[in-house]
């Protein structure tokens, strides 16, 4: 008979601490020890061991005891304690690059962003400048008493699990070994596609305190579509990004909506981003063209003309909406997901456009009699991928809290 393997008590404690923290983050209200025990399935005796560890490390704090009921002792609410733990988020995008530090309670500790056109830039130069920004944010967070527990990096291209950027066509970058850049190796960043990072930022309680019961639930499934110069996408199932066998799932921007359509940089014709991408939409509306269409001022002008109901702009947006509907219908019919979240440029158009897309989309769903499609605008700000990258950094702590608590 093989020898029985002994249980590592530290591994068990680490797992239980992670479960407690995740449960607290997903709750919209403070929880008592008894409520946490019930929600997690852990015993009250186990909670009496775990909670003091979290409180003494300033990760959790005790609130004011609730008024005493007719029976028993008043319960003490437990809340995520801000000011101690933060994750670092780094992003290189088509309109610039930057760094943020995010508290476990959801507050932004510090953020730096450099806005500039990024097409055909030198990766070495950009990663060097990104390192400078990261060090500035690290120093500021440290001065405020924070412990940085991890870092994420969001990139606008295909990223492998072993940290290779295969291609970022809108940057003109190909085949980069990310660990060769000092900022990546120094921070041991977790790198991924920017749409995947942005999608994680939509999940309530993924790595920061959930704020309300409105909108999504922590284990919901949805398709995230983000419009930048191109269009990125991600598939989320049960609160986790489903990146497919090779990590490249969700590229809705390269679903063809016109087989004989405009040629795309990917080599195909009629890709969604050639009609609904930011650059394509600005050019179709006659706002600007070429490199000038990449400017944020061009986006502002596009929105101004659309609100003023300028005919060419309204027509361009209407074609873009139809293209989005066509691509989303294909994705929903394949994936059987009923919720779409729009980020990036489309957030600027407001909920009216989301409602328009939803109305046009519903009849194109094969199971429309049984499925009520929801199309929502992201409630994260303009830097969702940067926020998501910082949350990926925070997961380093949440997945292995004992290491940081002991240190």
TrEMBL record:
Enzyme class: transferase
Entry EC number(s): 2.7.1.2
Similarity remark: Belongs to the ROK (NagC/XylR) family.
InterPro entries: ATPase_NBD, ROK, WH-like_DNA-bd_sf, WH_DNA-bd_sf
Keywords on record: Transferase
GO MF annotations, alphabetized: glucokinase activity
Database matches in Gene3D superfamilies: 3.30.420.40, Winged helix-like DNA-binding domain superfamily/Winged helix DNA-binding domain (1.10.10.10)
Name of the protein described by the UniProt record: ROK family protein
Organism: Bifidobacterium tsurumiense
Source domain of life: Bacteria
Pfam hit, one: ROK
């Amino acid at each position: 008979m093989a020898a029985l393997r002994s249980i590592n008590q530290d591994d068990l404690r680490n797992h239980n601490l992670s479960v407690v923290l995740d449960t607290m983050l997903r709750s919209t209200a403070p929880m008592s020890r008894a409520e946490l025990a019930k929600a997690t399935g852990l015993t009250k005796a186990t909670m009496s061991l775990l909670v003091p560890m979290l409180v003494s490390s300033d990760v959790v704090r005790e609130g004011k005891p609730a008024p005493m009921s007719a029976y028993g002792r008043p319960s003490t609410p437990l809340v995520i304690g801000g000011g101690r733990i933060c994750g670092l988020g780094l992003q290189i995008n088509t309109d610039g690059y930057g760094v943020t530090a995010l508290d476990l309670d959801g507050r932004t500790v510090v953020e730096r962003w450099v806005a500039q056109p990024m097409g055909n830039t030198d990766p070495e130069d950009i990663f060097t400048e990104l390192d400078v920004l990261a060090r500035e944010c690290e120093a500021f967070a440290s001065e405020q008493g924070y412990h940085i527990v991890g870092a994420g990096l969001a990139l606008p291209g295909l990223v492998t699990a072993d940290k290779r950027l295969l291609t970022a066509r809108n940057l003109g970058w190909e085949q980069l070994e990310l660990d060769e850049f000092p900022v990546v190796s120094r921070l041991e960043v977790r790198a991924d596609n920017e749409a995947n990072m942005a999608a994680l930022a939509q999940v309530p309680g993924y790595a920061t305190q959930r704020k309300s019961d409105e909108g999504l639930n922590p284990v919901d499934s949805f398709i995230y579509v983000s419009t930048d110069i191109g269009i990125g996408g991600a598939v989320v199932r049960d609160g986790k990004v489903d990146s497919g066998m090779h990590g490249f799932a969700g590229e809705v921007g390269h679903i063809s909506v016109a087989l004989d359509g405009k040629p795309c940089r990917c080599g195909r014709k009629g890709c969604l981003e050639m009609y609904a991408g930011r650059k394509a939409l600005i050019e179709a509306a006659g706002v600007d063209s070429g490199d000038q269409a990449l400017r944020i001022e061009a986006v502002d002008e596009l929105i101004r003309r659309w609100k003023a109901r300028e005919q060419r702009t309204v027509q361009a947006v209407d074609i873009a909406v139809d293209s989005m509907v066509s691509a989303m219908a294909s994705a929903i019919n394949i994936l059987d997901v009923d919720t779409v979240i729009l980020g990036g440029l489309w957030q600027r158009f407001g909920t009216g456009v989301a409602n328009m897309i939803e109305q046009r989309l519903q009849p194109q769903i094969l199971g429309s009699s049984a499925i009520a499609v929801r199309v929502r605008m992201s409630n994260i700000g303009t830097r969702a991928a940067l926020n998501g990258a910082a949350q990926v950094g925070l997961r380093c702590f949440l997945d292995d809290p004992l290491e940081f608590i002991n240190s």
